[in-house]
Amino acid sequence: MRLRFIGKDPESGKDGSPSVFVDEDSGELVLQGWKVGDEVREDCRKAGPVPDHEDIVRLPGRMVPLLRKACDAAERSGLH
Known about the structure:
Layout: E1 3-8, E2 19-23, E3 29-32, E4 34-35, H1 38-45, E5 57-58, H2 64-77
Antiparallel strand pairs: 1-2, 2-3, 4-5
């Protein structure tokens, strides 16, 4: 797995975390974000189950440009 760092939340400071990566081998997005609370988890489960091997993270809306950049990079990989 070769992770390409796309960027992090521009307002998170030097120790902040919400970040976006692209796995250059698989073309998948890798997201690092804030853990969600039980209320958000329950709301998400209304749309369907969240398997034990999956999780839910929250990213601030200001990261949309980074997500677009990551989506473009993943699409260019031709691996999807």
